[in-house]
Amino acid sequence: MIYVTDGINYYMKNKKIIKGRVVWLTGLSCSGKTTISKELIKYFKKNKLPVQWLDGDVVRKTINKDLGFSKKDRDENIERVTHIAQMLAENGVNVVAAFVSPYRKMRNFARKICPNFIEVYVECDIKECIRRDTKGLYKKALAGKIRDFTGIQDPYELPKKPEIIINTEGKKAGESARELISRLERLARWPKYTDHINDNSTRS
Q1: Long-range pairs for 9-16 at CB < 8 Å and ≥24 separation?
Q2: Dihedrals φ, ψ of 145, to 5°?
Q3: Catalytic residue status for 101
Q4: Which residue out of 101, 176, 201, 204 is catalytically annotated?
Q5: Tens digit of pLDDT at every position of the chain (204 positions)
Q6: Angle separating helix axes 173-188 and 33-46, nearest 10 degrees
Q7: pLDDT value at position 4?
Q8: What's the CA gap between 58 and 136, in Å, rounded?
């Protein structure tokens, strides 16, 4: 799914292409990555900044629907979206990427080739993730009905030095989103815009 906001006008006004930033949200399933990333997309749109959203669930149903969940396929999934993020950022489009991306090696690969890479670890205890899981994926994994599920049969390798850590436990989705945007503004000197965020946003 693509959200490009006023991209042409943005480039014409600046008369040059400024490389975009790649904001990469990583964390367990149901930690809050998708919900937070949607709010971040609204932020870019309100500030008329060109942006594309890359979300794990959406990508799996479209360009990467041929891939499964073996380690090889997981790596291929991240490699493909990394190259997409790189090309977009090189051409002035900001990228918001929300992927479990459980392996440190592939996150480091994304960091290496993407300009202005910002790793955001969306931290949440697995018990809370299981409680939030409306799709019942953790329950199926614990029952052995889903194989290689991250956090159950397959490991999630914690980021060593992420630029930002957002702990979503005990917080409303809007609160976590505002915290991330505020920290991004300090880190990347973006325009401030957090008033539109609704505390009662539904997590996913």
Answers
A1: 9/48, 10/48, 10/49, 10/50, 10/92, 11/50, 11/92
A2: -85, -20
A3: yes
A4: 101
A5: 444 444 444 444 555 678 899 999 999 999 999 999 999 999 999 888 899 999 998 999 999 999 988 899 999 999 999 999 999 999 999 999 999 999 999 999 999 999 999 999 999 999 999 999 999 999 999 999 999 999 999 999 999 999 999 999 988 888 999 999 999 988 876 555 444 455 555 454
A6: 50
A7: 44
A8: 18
Could you tell me which of 190, 176, 177, 193 has the C-alpha nearest to residue 21? 190
Cα end-to-end distance, the chain, whole Å: 16
Residue with the two structure tokens 């949440």: 124
Handedness of CA 32, 163, 83, 40 (dihedral sign): positive
Q: Which domains does the chain have, with CATH numbers?
A: 7-123+156-184 (3.40.50.300)
128-131 long-range contacts (CB < 8 A, ≥24 apart) are: 128/169, 129/28, 129/29, 129/30, 129/31, 130/30
What DSSP element (H or E) covers 163?
none
DSSP 8-state assignment for residue 84: H
| Residue 130, both tokens | 């299981």
Alpha helices in 15-142, H assignment, sequence order: 33-46, 56-61, 71-90, 104-113, 126-132, 137-142
